[in-house]
Amino acid sequence: MKALKTTLFFGLLISLMNTQFAHAQRAVRVTRRAVVAPAPVVVATKPVVVTPTPVVVKPAPVVVTPVPVVVVPRRAVRRQVLKP
């Protein structure tokens, strides 16, 4: 249970960081990726809040969802750095 709670907590942290990251990117340059990034973050945070009791049912999607969300902003940042 502790391991699950820590993973969920870190998943929430990562998703929150990504929302801030995406907002910062929007300020820099409005790209399609920057606009798309916040949507999966909202989807990832909601099941964590909604399902604290049936943790056994949804540990996998909650742990998996932050990974693509992390990848998306970094690509946009690389493109911004490459094309000033």
Plain-language structure description:
- This protein is mostly helical and 84 residues long.
- It has one domain.
- It contains 5 helices and no strands.
- The chain has helices at 2-28, 32-36, 38-50, 59-64, 66-82.
- Helix 1 (2-28) runs antiparallel to helix 3 and helix 1 (2-28) runs parallel beside helix 5.
Outline:
Keywords: Signal. The chain is mainly alpha-helical and 84 residues long.
Structural class: mainly alpha
**How large is the share of residues in beta strands?**
under 5%
> Count of helices?
5
Counting DSSP E segments of at least 2 residues, the number of strands comes to 0
Average the pLDDT over all residues and give the rounded result.
53
- Give me the Rg, rounded: 14 Å
* Proportion of helical residues: over 70%
Number of domains: 1
How far apart are the first and last residues' alpha carbons, in Å? 47 Å
Describe the main β-sheet briefly: none
Uncertain runs: 30-72
User: What is the H/E string?
Assistant: HHHHH
Signal peptide: 1-24
Keywords: Signal
For this entry, give a set of tags.
81% helix; mainly alpha; 84 residues; signal
Strand and helix map with partners:
Elements: H1 2-28, H2 32-36, H3 38-50, H4 59-64, H5 66-82
Helix pairs in contact: 1-3, 1-5
